[in-house]
Design a protein that fits this description.
The chain is mainly α. The chain has four helices and no strands.
Length: about 230
């Protein structure tokens, strides 16, 4: 009986060695799965969700309290880099300070003023006013011509533009569908892998429990045999 118990102990030790070697082999891979969200049901344990939320709040309190400094260590995108545009930078600074004031509509370029009372008899002043009026008239005629051209050909141009936008929309929608399909495939692959890993972990956990139980039974048996041997020697 004593040799049979020793053989069983050696067998259990061999199984434990193989089990530990397997775990070490898995840990030597390039990645280690720290959690299995498709398998783990820890949040379903009563009180576990509150515990996790409280731990998250503690971690968030260690971060930056001021929201304006949350992204201070990250560079701004090029579209928001105002260092190369002093006017935009000054306007952005005024917006942040709350001192920005939008100017009134400037209609001076549309005015056709007459000479002042002091220059009403000045020929050069009247020539300048006439030239300004002619410039205003020419500008308005150009606008009328542009509006007429827009009425004649603007519809076709906008239809072409709408067609281009529709094509661009279709291209972007196709890319979005492809990305969603890829995400769904990745999620299905993760779910399949994690469910397989969860099943394997469950079987290994059961096997580990069986080995622990067998080890405990073996220790009890060895202890009983030692006591029996001592009693026989006495």
């Amino acid at each position: 009986r004593y040799s049979h118990g020793l053989l069983l102990l050696q067998l259990i030790s061999l199984c434990l060695y193989l089990f530990i070697s397997f775990l070490k082999e898995q840990s030597d891979k390039k990645y280690i799965i720290m959690s299995l969200p498709y398998v783990d049901q820890d949040l379903e344990i009563p009180g576990m969700r509150d515990t996790v939320n409280s731990m998250l709040e503690v971690e968030m309190e260690k971060g930056t309290a001021n929201e304006s400094e949350y992204l201070k260590d990250f560079p701004l995108p090029l579209a928001f880099n105002f260092n190369s545009a002093p006017l935009v930078q000054r306007a952005h600074q005024q917006l942040q300070e709350g001192s920005y004031k939008k100017g009134d509509f400037d209609a001076y370029r549309y005015d056709v003023p007459t000479p002042s009372l002091e220059a009403k008899n000045d020929l050069q002043a009247w020539k300048a006013c006439v030239q300004n009026a002619y410039a205003q008239y020419t500008h308005q005629m150009n606008r009328i011509d542009n509006l007429q051209l827009m009425m004649d050909f603007g519809g076709q141009k906008w239809m072409k533009h709408v067609e281009q936008l529709a094509h661009l929309k279709k291209v972007l929608e196709d890319k979005l569908d492809t990305l969603r399909t890829s995400i769904e495939d990745i999620n299905w692959e993760r779910q399949t892998e994690q469910q397989a890993a969860g099943k394997e972990l469950y079987e290994m956990e059961l096997r580990w429990g069986e080995l622990i139980l067998a080890n405990h039974q073996l220790e009890t048996l060895c202890s009983q045999m030692e006591q029996h041997k001592e009693q026989n020697e006495q």
